[in-house]
Amino acid sequence: MTLDPDRIAYRPYWWDIDEPLRQDNHDPLPKASDVVIVGGGYTGMAAALVFARAGKSVIVIEKSTPGYGASTRNGGINSASIRPSHGELEQSWGRQFADDLYREASAARIDLAEFCETEGIDAMFKLSGWFKGAMSAKHYDYLAKEADLLQSRLGIPCHMVSQADQHGEIVSDRFYGGMVEDDVGGFHASKFFAGFLRLITEAGVKVYEKTAVDDIKDHATSGKLVVTDKGSIHADIVVVATNGYTGGSEHRFSRFLRQRTVPVRSSIIVTENLGRERVKALMPALRMYGNTAKLTTYFRPTPDGQRILLGARGAEHNPTLKTVHFLRNRLISILPQLADVQIDYCWTGYVAFNRQLIPRIFSHNGVHYSAAYAGSGTVWARWCGKKLAEQVLGQTNAPSVLTAAAPPALPFYNGNPWFLPMVYSWYGLQDRLNEWRHG
Ligand SMILES: Cc1cc2nc3c(=O)[nH]c(=O)nc-3n(C[C@H](O)[C@H](O)[C@H](O)COP(=O)(O)OP(=O)(O)OC[C@H]3O[C@@H](n4cnc5c(N)ncnc54)[C@H](O)[C@@H]3O)c2cc1C
Question: Which one, of 288, 312, 283, lies nearest residue 300 by Cα?
């Protein structure tokens, strides 16, 4: 069926909500604040909330509008995925670290659900579980080993679904069975953000939107001077929470983070309204879904159960009909039953990776950072922002295995990921070889 280009809205499906996504703040920028946070996404909001509730004066400086970055563009899958498998982590970092990191991911997922519950955030969160489809028989065996380890050693609830039983999860023949992680959920990205914004507003945090931080300098007496395009602010504590939107050399302060994080594009489509029955007939378990491909695809029913959302890495900065076709082909390769379906939304955003492929909380030259959630920041960004603030405040009950020295800079790299097309080609080749050899 031909796509109707006129019905496609090139903006996030999540933005069509009644709750405000902006703060009603017309005050001039103050001259000083205990805490300045650069970047108004989940990381910045989470840190701001902890600082404000500890009695600090807090301002958030946001270059665009609050949540404009990845925090209202994501797929809303709350997996706290860790890019390296437990086995790979154990090889590089040792068994204790691997265990601790996987345990912390589980704790962060539980904490997110509790946070929505106790703070009264109606983010349509549902503990749906997450089906990860194996892209070959070999991948299925690998997942089975991983599931056994996560379950028996770490107590993380998960189980395998054979290829024969897979239609109980998703009516697709694209996978060789898969693994279900039961403690993963999904939410509405913007409703979660709007709830967060309400909380920080109630806690007294002021958000200054359309204001860009250009530099962070040592102040003549103490603390830091945060230089913006609307004036400078003296702060005791500065947090950089810009992640995949750290930008280029126009922001002097960002050089340190830019050399350590790679922004990677991810694009999403949302189908026309299919109705709950049709969605459930295709995805009987109504879970969050992904696969084991190197160039992974993630998909899910929308929180109202009426549409299907699918995303993948790559594509253009500004999505076009080409992006829509690319993602729709992915959708049809998994669910050929959707060949007759129109697409209503398409958008793009940036996620961030570091060399270690592990989210990191760190400090450098008196400035605090949290970044590089490797495409799994709906849980990690909030968790890390919160942990960062608790640690800066000296709340020693808040250790995290993610806190470490700054990740190493990438060689010959200053923020422009010129090598990504080659990485995508290499990963694509590996995916094809895997299916050809082991499928
Ligand atoms: C398409 C897409 C799909 C995704 N899907 C999922 C998913 O399903 N599950 C999951 O767990 N994660 C997903 N993610 C990742 C997740 O959304 C992010 O990891 C998370 O939102 C990062 O939050 P953040 O606050 O650190 O950064 P962001 O939300 O990106 O916020 C950074 C902010 O910093 C601001 N900023 C930058 N420079 C400056 C400056 N100089 N001055 C002031 N402000 C500045 C930007 O404008 C931006 O608003 C996805 C991301 C994308 C883009």
Answer: 288
- Compute CA distances 17 → 11, 64, 138, 189, 193, whole Å: 13, 19, 43, 11, 11
pTM exceeds 0.85: yes
Question: What's the CA gap between 26 and 41, in Å, rounded?
Answer: 20
399, 397, 349: which is closest to 373 by C-alpha?
349
Of the candidates 172, 126, 128, the residue with the CA atom closest to the CA atom of residue 287 = 128
Mutate to test the pocket of ligand 1, among 181, 378, 384 (most ligand atoms within 8 A of CB): 378
Q: How many angstroms is it from 162 CA to the middle of ligand 1?
A: 35
Residue ranges lining ligand 1, Cβ < 6 Å: 38-44, 61-64, 68-71, 73-77, 79, 212-213, 241-247, 251, 266, 268, 298, 311, 349-351, 373, 375-379, 381
Q: Where are the alpha helices (DSSP H) in 167-222?
A: 189-202
End-to-end alpha carbon distance in the chain:
29
How is residue 374 written in tokens? 């490797």
How does pLDDT run across 113-163, given as a tens digit for each residue? 999 999 999 999 999 999 999 999 999 999 999 999 999 999 999 999 999
Query: Rounded to 5 degrees, what are φ and ψ at 51?
Result: -60, -45
> 15-57, pLDDT tens digit by residue?
999 999 999 999 999 999 999 999 999 999 999 999 999 999 9
